[in-house]
Design goal:
14 strands; alpha/beta; Rossmann fold; L-2-Hydroxyisocaproate Dehydrogenase, Chain A, domain 2; 20% strand; binds adenosine-5-diphosphoribose; 2 domains
């Protein structure tokens, strides 16, 4: 049996953790590519040493050469700088913009058939940039933001209610940044919407904890940003893609009139499969929720314009 091949660009915290999760779950063979010489090779060797302990079947290698990534089914882009305390994701705009431009061109040249999953921040802008640079159809290049933000919302709800995480469905749409849009009406504990379970001020506190969940991690780490939950979120999306499951996950996709938004990448629920985005869901949002999504889109559009796209 030939296993699928996943290239992870950037073998840093998010990239290496993603690679290890994909291996442990038996999802795909993995190639990690990075500019740092020896580092991806060293991490790959370390993971291969773990193989007989964890008893996973896939293999991983590290490289500095995109030729080794050729023929990948999925390319995950994590190359770039992470946030430091006090920085917003938008502060990373110009540095990460030039990195993303170059790595996506190289990776897509080596794997023209791949699905490309962007992770580098500021996510919505980098995904849009990657789409423009790659020339890929929009359904084949999208980003990881909503799964992570929804997971953080689920965590906040679990902390507040004491409910098991397995009883919680949480949904966050919009930009992966301060303008994200947690949706309490569409987030449930054992089937009951949050808006019917908690008073409005408690719901708002959970929304705020979600929006600043990433910053909370950055403030504690001091040297970088979150990587376990981001990597888990990427692995969930790659699993849906390679398994061709059609699972609906909040994904950073190109909106083309959906929710009254056009020509902006933003997280909304989308069905994922082997061809990439199968379809984009149109949630029955009320006026306030729609306004929040459109404000979120406006913030991304402004950042996109700032890098001259
Ligand atoms: N080509 C390949 N790799 C690169 C390049 C490049 N041009 N430029 C930087 N890198 C690599 C770095 O060498 C480093 O190993 O990207 C990796 C980034 O890893 P970390 O610094 O550990 O950052 P990480 O926490 O993984 O975050 C990466 O994901 O969640 C986002 O905001 C986060 O944008 C950041 C990205």
């Amino acid at each position: 049996m030939t296993r699928p091949k996943v290239t992870v660009v950037g073998a840093g915290q998010v990239g290496a953790t993603t690679a290890f999760l994909l291996l442990q779950k038996g999802i795909a063979d993995v190639v990690m590519v990075d500019v740092a010489e020896g580092m991806p090779q060293g991490k790959a060797l370390d993971m291969m040493h773990a193989r007989s302990v964890e008893r996973f079947a896939p293999v991983v290698s590290g490289t500095n050469d995109y030729a080794d990534t050729a023929g990948s089914d999925v390319v995950v882009v994590t190359a770039g700088l992470p946030r430091k305390p006090g920085m917003t994701r938008d502060d990373l705009l110009s540095a990460n913009g030039s990195i993303v431009r170059s790595v996506i061109s190289s990776a897509v040249e080596a794997s023209p058939e791949a699905i490309v999953l962007c992770v580098t921040n500021p996510l919505d802008v980098m995904t849009y940039l990657g789409w423009k640079v790659s020339g890929l159809p929009s359904g084949r290049i999208f980003g990881m933001g909503g799964v992570l933000d929804s997971a953080r919302f689920a965590f906040a709800i679990a902390e507040e209610t004491g409910a098991p995480v397995t009883d919680i469905e949480a949904l966050v749409v919009g930009a992966h940044g301060d303008a994200m849009v947690p949706l309490p009406r569409f987030s449930t504990v054992a089937g009951t919407p949050l808006t019917e379970l908690l008073p409005a001020d408690r719901v708002e506190a959970l929304v705020q904890r979600t929006v600043f969940g990433g910053a909370e991690v950055v403030a504690l780490l001091k040297t970088g940003s979150a990587f376990y939950a981001p990597a888990a979120s990427v692995a969930a999306m790659v699993t849906a893609i390679l398994g061709d499951t059609g699972e609906t996950l909040p994904s950073c996709v190109l909106l083309e009139g959906h929710y009254g938004v056009d020509d902006v990448y933003l997280s909304v629920p989308a069905s994922l499969g082997r061809e990439g985005v199968r379809s984009v869901a149109e949630l029955p949002l009320d006026d306030a929720e729609l306004a929040a999504v459109r404000a979120s889109a406006a913030s991304v559009r402004e950042a996109v314009a700032a890098i001259g796209l």
